[in-house]
What we know:
alpha+beta; Helix Hairpins; 2 domains; 2 helices; elongated; binds dinuclear copper ion; Cytochrome c oxidase subunit 2; copper; metal-binding; mitochondrion
Amino acid sequence: MSTWANLGLQDSASPLMEQLIFFHDHALLILVMITVLVGYLMFMLFFNNYVNRFLLHGQLIEMIWTILPAIILLFIALPSLRLLYLLDEINEPSVTLKSIGHQWYWSYEYSDFNNIEFDSYMIPTNELSTDGFRLLDVDNRIVLPMNSQIRILVTAADVIHSWTIPALGVKVDGTPGRLNQTNFFINRPGLFYGQCSEICGANHSFMPIVIES
Ligand code: CUA
């Protein structure tokens, strides 16, 4: 989970999140290079001595500064596309978890494991124990094995919710009347915290998710 002064991404707990962080850093590096170049160019305009006042066209330079940015964009687009399809790959899941969004709590079903069903509510601040995390802990945690492929099915009973766990790189909308699917692989033990991330009503901020792995 995020703690004080953690402004970047959380440490990954799954191979997909690791790839997402690599892609983020890659895109950021390209962004910094473009910003520095354009910033330098704009700064240098202050010292322009107008030697090219009567220049009306330059086919070659137009060609270069059209094609070059297009090639740079390809270096972002292709890895992005690779990740997009990688995130959708389902690889023989050993457990399936179904999570249903409600106003304002999540309910879970382990449909292929003893048919376990339970609701998961946030623990209110006045009932929180001293080692609990305010607005983030729940009364019934999801328990999932590490080092195994896990499929999750997300839907909602009333309005649109979103099942989001940053450390696992998972963010799936739960939409009434639809069943969305994604998967993840937890590669270290721990508690992984998440929150709903679709504005779903007055208590949207108070329907957290906790995975115990
Ligand atoms: Cu459910 Cu926001």
